[in-house]
Amino acid sequence: MAAITLSGLKKTYSGGVAAVKGVDLHVEDGELVVLVGPSGCGKSTLLRMVAGLESITEGTLSIGGRVVNKLEPAERDIAMVFQNYALYPHMTVYQNLAYGLKNRGVKKNEIERQVREAAQMLEIEPLLTRKPRKLSGGQRQRVAMGRALVRDPAVFLFDEPLSNLDAKLRVQMRVEIKKLQRRLKTTSLYVTHDQLEAMTLGDRLVVLNEGRIEQVGTPMEIYRYPATLFVAGFIGSPAMNLLAVEFLQARNAGDALDELPPGTDTVGIRPDTILLAPPVAPHLAFDATLELFEAAGAESHLYVRLAGSGQTTVIRTDQPAPVAEGDILRFYIPSDALHCFSQATGLRTG
Ligand SMILES: Nc1ncnc2c1ncn2[C@@H]1O[C@H](COP(=O)(O)OP(=O)(O)OP(=O)(O)O)[C@@H](O)[C@H]1O
Q: Strands of 312-317's sheet, edge to edge?
């Protein structure tokens, strides 16, 4: 049983870089929480503080109800899976898996049992006698996971474990990590800069920006109801379109403009909520030139330039567009699909 609690956690590196500027977060026992954000937002620093690989400048960190600020990594009952696998090259897969257990003085037949069990779970039994250099990237990542698994820790920490794998393998391993975590119910913190990976993997997401939390929530809460302009732009692919209300007002872009919450100066529009025919409900409407048509299998992306602006907007549709590049089209967005924000505060207005 191990919940993780971060209270007012701060990290300032010796050169004066404030990488984490006060983070409060509670991870429930058994939960898989993903830390996501752009490069440099502090997510690795935060994970490394939980691991004990970075000191804590200020604040309190507890794991399983015990304050661990001053404890060594080995005393925290955690196991970490890294991006670069960190396997011992001169050892076989079996030896790599057994190493931690051996160091802890576990008996030989018990080591054998635990290694075999982990290898079976990860389907790497046929690889046990091989050295890491004779393994593919995906196989190495499995071994790295196996090594974390045999330690049977209270907490798993994952630092971008899939970023060295190709796209197909990433998806496959992502699904496997999720299934494994569901089965073991080990509290997990997972760092990635990939918002799709974060959305599909996490029970909850923590969106970080410049060392601070922007929003915490389930993937769908964050997708449907981004709390800030930053989250609106970061989560979702293709990204949410953000348009200035002033620009739309100057073009008389529809009756939905009369209903915006006070303080709104920017509206966000998800590419898949834009319609090619007018809805009955209040809506926005504007003309745009189709610049590029992208067929992406089950869906298509239309890149359009709004009349009177240099701004490109993306539309996602599952209908093949009956149009050619260069055509001027009229687009419609129902008012209940609009996300309203204030540039001044960066916050959602309603
Ligand atoms: N050892 C260090 N000494 C000084 N500054 C550091 C150190 N490690 C990281 N930083 C700085 O702290 C900030 C946060 O870095 P961190 O690696 O935590 O970000 P990140 O979100 O994990 O980024 P990435 O996805 O690129 O790894 C950055 O400005 C980085 O330059």
A: 312-317, 299-306, 283-296, 328-334
